[in-house]
Fold:
Amino acid sequence: MAPRSSRADPFSVRLFRALVGLYPSAFRNEYERELSHAFIDRYRAASGPWDRVRFWLEAVGGVFKEAPKEHARMALHDLRCAVRVLRQHAVTTAVIVTTLALGVGANTAVFSLLDVVALRSPLLVRDADQLYVVNSGQYAAGGPESARMSGPMLNALHQAAPAGVKVAAMSRGIARVYTRAAGERETVPARLQLVSPNLFPVLGVSPALGRLLPDAERAAHEPAVVLSYGYWQRRFGGASDVVGRSLAINGAAFTIAGVGPRDFAGVWLETPVDIWIPLTAQPTVQYSQSFSADGADLGRPWLPQARIWWLHVVARVPPDQVAPATAIFKASLSGLAGRDTRLVLQPFAGGLSRLRQQFSTPLVALMAMAMLVLLTACANVANLLLSRAVTRQRELAVRMALGAGRPRLIHQLLTESLLLVVIASAMGLVFARWGADVLLRVVMASMDGVPPFTPSIDVRVLAFTAGVALVSVVAFGVWPAWRATRVDLASAFAANARTILGGAARPARALVVLQVALSLLLVTGAGLFARSFQKLLDVDLGFESGRVLAIGVDPRLAGVAPESLPETYARVLDSLTHAPEVDSAAFAMCGLRGVCAREDGFQVEGYRPREGEVVIFGVDAVTPTYFSTVGTPLLAGRALNDADRSHTAKVAVVNRTLAERYFGDWRRAVGRRIGLAAPDIEIVGIVEDTRGLTDLKAAAIPSVFVPLSQRPVVPRELLVRATSDSSMVASTVRSAMENAAPGLPIERMEPIEILVQRGLSQERVVVWLTASFGALALGLAALGLFGVLSHATARRRPEIGVRLALGAAPKLVRWSVVRDGLRLVLYGLVLALPLVLIGGRLISRLVFGISPYDPLTVIVAVLVLVFVGIAASAGPARRASRVDPMVALRQD
Structure:
């Protein structure tokens, strides 16, 4: 029965035809036409509108009743066929699955770490989107991490807070302290943060045990602490009677008031807090870090002083009160302690994190490179599937001749692609779980502490992997399936091997060009990171890293009274100096790890600050032998010496950056004066700039080194220069320190060389990963080019046979194949150059010491791609030159 004209049929008839297409027999063309006619006849035989409505409901019900069952049977049948086809092509299947698994696994591993570091909020508190950091002054543009406020500023904000707005504060730094519980004999290190008593209610957390900190009035008479849940489990074994116990912190007695919730360890992403104590306990536990000061007395309690900025102020602000609260807070701080009146409320839902600030951009760059690798892998897989599908054109033609429609064949081919992706994704998840752990360990290598998170394969990561898998199916499965089913039956049965292989030539070449372009982009990026890392290795650190030990100490833990500290320092240094294999030793407040104290409001003799400029110096207190111990060159003047005492004139040594910035020529800085309340400190020497071990990329900041005898602080760093290998004198150093100060605990003892290598760990892993991505992309591009040229050579066998029979030299045949390969490489390079320029701009902040458009790197990357192209062309070229003319001429 011939089908009726669809144009002549009314809309309802055409709708019925579409409905029939959903029935189980939708792919049986003749039965479909008969069924369609039967539907139309029954519809027209209906006597009234209600009969037609009833008929319509029965028809739709039949579709929803029968079609899903048949489609499920069809899907199961296609799945069995896909398994059989993949087993028949085991080698190709293994290559495809491995390629996709690497691409999916790399993307999932990087995303799982990017998710917890930069995307997901680490604060599991109530209504985190209502939390803001109150940021004031010159730090307002620096993000929540840079916020600094004083105690009087906190009081002003408390008094000015409108109804519904709550304000709390915490110290900017997490202090390392030593604790001793009742009945214990040894001290145990812990991480401590000072907070206002209302911080926990403002954040919206409740205690897991006991209560939180008492209010400000009671805190002065009732020294209490709150333990974190993790610290409670580790230190006290989760004992239920821990509330009310006594806990000594740096020798001061406190009472345990309660335990924090299980899922809250503070607001710093990478530094979980063990103990919280009231802000009023700052002098009791001798907290003295992460502050900015201007003419303040650091020996007195900090909270009442207006010129010590050491607090993060957090506010809970309802959405409709953000603008009014900002204006009120700004007015309340206007003119307070001479501070800038700029003020912003910055979102605090993500907490505070140096990790996020430092690694968000590198992880985004790695994520982009991983996606490029996946795209390259998809192009390569699409090439393989396209070649295999085109060689199956006779099979597909036979199935179409037997009644299978084109949608049915596309469904079959996409089922094979989907099965490949499912297997590859399962393997990729295993690789991602391992890779994410490795990435996290490397990222945290230079951080102090264990992060309160672990990248896991959770719902978000699984959703991302599913999305990547879906994109992969679309990227490499749809086009080959669509093109392979464009079959003309007469041509397919009459086609020979040459015409069949020729059907995939043009799209396969386009895919190879895309692979070459992406490979050049990845190789160039890997080269830029490698050259940047080499520049970082060659940078002048400003000190000698060899033969120096960095030792963390705290004399207070040995029961040394504050007035006896200078004598203890002298005994330790004298004992170490006379120890065998020790050259010199020195104490420092900060040492080589970086500036641990920055003070602003400095006055420089002869220098007038610009409007709004605040002069900020890094300050370190050291003993006279510090510079000779670490090997920092003295450029002018003299170093500190034993004659610089507390009762003598104040002196300081400054670095080159400070001298050049504020005195023009650094040679003229000696003899000039600087100071806080007044320029009362004489500059007696200039030393070379040094780079902090925590961030070797960061440029040196203006720094001041004052004698430890003139600045009464507790040094936490002891540096020892050995006469030979520093790792060989550890026992000697321990014995000498024990003789000089019995019971003095050593926090850590590490060679400076190890610390330098640890400071480069992040750059090293970026270089390793980008190099791996580039090498993988090169391999995929070479494989794709090899496959295209192999198919092209097979298609040209009769032509090559004729040329060889007519006397063509084999080397000319080889060159013709290599030339085809180089032409594809050239097209890919031309396509990639604009991408290289765009990518260079995106990674400009991640490279050090070189331009992101470094011509040498681009040239080397181009030469590498050309070499890979020649190498991939060599095999097909050799086979082409060995074609037997008689065999080739007889080829059908």
Q: What stands out?
A: The two ends are 41 Å apart (CA to CA). DSSP finds 27 helices and 25 strands in the chain.
